[in-house]
Amino acid sequence: MKYISTRGNAPVLNFEEVMLTGLADDGGLYVPETLPTYSKEEIASWSKLSYPDLAYKIIEPFVADSIPADDLKSIIDDSYSDFRHNAIAPLVQLDRDEWVLELFHGPTLAFKDFALQMLGRLLDYVLERRHQKVVIMGATSGDTGSAAIEGCRRCSNIDIFILHPHQRVSDVQRKQMTTVKADNIHNLAVKGNFDDCQQMVKDSFGDKSFLPSDRKLVAVNSINWARIMAQIVYYFYAALALGGPHRPVSFSVPTGNFGDIFAGYLAKKMGLPIDQLIIATNTNDVLHRLMAKNVYSKHELVHTLSPSMDIMNSSNFERVLFDFYDQDGEAIADLMTRFKTQDITLDDKVIAKAREVFDSYSVDDEVTVQTIAEIYEDNEYLLDPHSAVGVKAGRECRRNPDIPMITLSTAHPAKFPEAVLKAGQKEEPILPHHMADLFEREERYEVMPKELSAVQDFIKNNLSA
Ligand SMILES: *Cc1c(COP(=O)(O)O)cnc(C)c1O
Fold this sequence. Notes:
Elements: E1 3-5, H1 15-21, E2 30-32, H2 40-44, H3 51-63, H4 69-79, E3 91-95, E4 98-102, H5 112-130, E5 134-139, H6 143-152, E6 158-165, H7 171-178, E7 185-190, H8 194-206, E8 216-218, H9 225-241, E9 249-254, H10 259-269, E10 274-281, H11 286-293, H12 317-324, H13 329-341, H14 348-357, E11 358-362, H15 365-379, H16 385-397, E12 405-409, H17 417-422, E13 446-448, H18 452-461
Helix pairs in contact: 3-4, 3-9, 4-5, 5-6, 5-9, 6-7, 9-10, 15-16
The structure holds pyridoxal-5'-phosphate.
């Protein structure tokens, strides 16, 4: 499989190179040049597969020229071995033809484990073969950091440095990051906000001279193609469990950076009959406004009860635009350059295509809390705030009550006690058994000033030999 940049002006790479690269040289994002497509009969023949076996079927064509089949198989099996549910991604019913796909049974209780458990292992595998070591640097407001740390804790060729804003992430999220004991894991609590952390990471990718020349800097946010790839799998898995591909299904996807729903778009292009794909956003609704008004505009960041979707700019949207513009990299480069200084409007043909594939809906905090309360009252089932945004958007946008509507449930409610208490629960939701002692575990992190040079010095001085 060959990978090309959405801005049409960077080297064509194979899977291994793409995984190690992050942003393309031209500022674009890497996407596969073509997608494998499957007939209904082929997809139906996968209906009895376990989650890891299905993952193998779907992922193999994307990585075939980089990783031999047997090795890939064992990497995938290993990636899902720490999930605490036999089904890996179980479906829970809310109502007639209304379902929730629980994606929070991985080690950090959020859907990011699906991709990051695999990404850490894939990276370590290719690095071992190349006799190379890399540095992962990332900024987090919560979920990404802990999932990346869990994904890399046993990787001997990766040193990982995660920056979080000091005293501004939730206790559960901080503890999940800082109680993982491994020499290659470093948590830096920066005396600043999330944007300060992210800026330091951006600046470090922009000028890597603080690192020894033999250490690459690798990104683990969703610009990394491998993350999107891993997320395609559960769309197939859920559809197959509910009578697909002989029956279409719809998905409602709580999204901020457009990563998760882009994976659903790819599943559809690969042949999975998906009726509706719903972009569910909180008050940070740049995508919903684009769909409704055909204006793509920046706005001020709003802090909501669903913080993992609090973003200003939906970076993966560029990937789907590239497709809608028939892989015209020049057009995308032009669009993105203009977006730096002004609002943009898409060509009529393009916005029409987007509206054909996607529906969208924006849910504010008040309605999020109402939805958590309502579903609890009706079903005694507790949603986390991100998933509640999804369920509400699914209900509002649904066109055909006979087609199953599946909301991706992206986190366990115990990760977001504030929203759950606001929805009328008397007590904080209980952490799953394997995390019951989280608050007794010993923490380890470094408090850092908001200074790029201090952070970079720390990294330089803490690289493994
Ligand atoms: C990261 C995250 C999201 C948003 O994912 P996208 O990549 O922006 O689609 C939604 N919910 C939770 C709990 C998350 O951690």
